[in-house]
Amino acid sequence: MNLHASDAQRQIARYRSLVRVTAALSRHVRTDDLLRAMHEQVRLLFDTPITLLARCVPGGGWHCLTLESDNVAEQDIAPRPDGLLERVLRGTLRLENDLPAYLRRESLGIVRLHHRSDLPHTLSWMGVPLHAGEVTGVLSVQSYAQGAFTPEDLEFLELLGVHLSIALENAALHERVEREAHTDPLTGLWNRRGFGERGEAALRAAHRDGARFTLAVMDLQDFKAVNDRFGHAVGDEVLTGLGLLLRRLTGRGAHVFRLGGDEFAVLLPGDSGQARGTLSRWLEDVRGHPWPTAAPPHLNIGLAQAHPGYSMSDWLREADTQMYEAKRRRLHLLGTEADRAGD
């Protein structure tokens, strides 16, 4: 009787832990935050030193977050035709309390997701699949001890996997809605809303830390004539081509935006002189691109460096002024008075 009472109390405690874990997961709406919270919360259910969350990545392979002895590691691993994670997704593996014997019996090798030689090897292993909309993965808990897990442990891990799958699906939906709200549908660049948020963040950094940022605003000279002569489909192709070229600037720390119509913006780190050099080199890419109109479009670009006390409207107004002056003079690039001296 006492044994049954003890078992009942343990079950109640575990279900309470599951409720707490579920509540903790519900507080996170971003996938990375959710996965890291999961690592911490899983210890409420299992007395185990290792938690692994593996997500399938496009093109094959896995993105893994591992918590082992309080150390969090993040790693990408290549796909394997018959690995432990692949077996979980196929439904042929769930629980092994003597992992080395299982590996020998099945003639399998494993990838160890840390490089510390002082930690022991996993002896007991459990894994359950995660299916959450576009997210597919595996949740695994592991132990250095043999015989560490029971069928009841697996049942709870499966319940936890269901809750984690729901939380992952909600997080993916939230991220997709956020991304769509900040993204231009034609070019895939950040839209005006994203521009406002990132621009304000740059101004705060400039005010607070003295960080240097330069805003470039550009439009396409006589873009209406392109639509009138070649049609809107070709006009859209020109805009998407420009978006692709602008993305190359992100490798130099820039953020790129489509503000609407044929108007784009680039937020570059550094002063206006550095930005001018970067954009001058980028214009060579524009000239060498295979445009559907044969001749490359003429871009008018105005530069404005952030200054203490600027508001977002001040900053944008100065860059716009320089852009319209470049358009009037049919120049590619104009910035501050010091920049103009070289034109």
UniProtKB/TrEMBL annotation:
A Pfam match: GGDEF
SUPFAM superfamilies linked to this entry: GAF domain-like, Nucleotide cyclase
Segments forming domain GGDEF: 211-343
InterPro entries listed in its UniProt record: Diguanylate_Cyclase, GAF, GAF-like_dom_sf, GGDEF_dom, Nucleotide_cyclase, Rev_trsase/Diguanyl_cyclase
Classification via NCBIfam families: GGDEF (TIGR00254)
PANTHER family found in the cross-reference section: DIGUANYLATE CYCLASE DGCM-RELATED, REGULATORY COMPONENTS OF SENSORY TRANSDUCTION SYSTEM
Record's protein name: GGDEF domain-containing protein
Organism of derivation: Deinococcus depolymerans
Lineage, uppermost ranks: Bacteria, Thermotogati, Deinococcota, Deinococci, Deinococcales
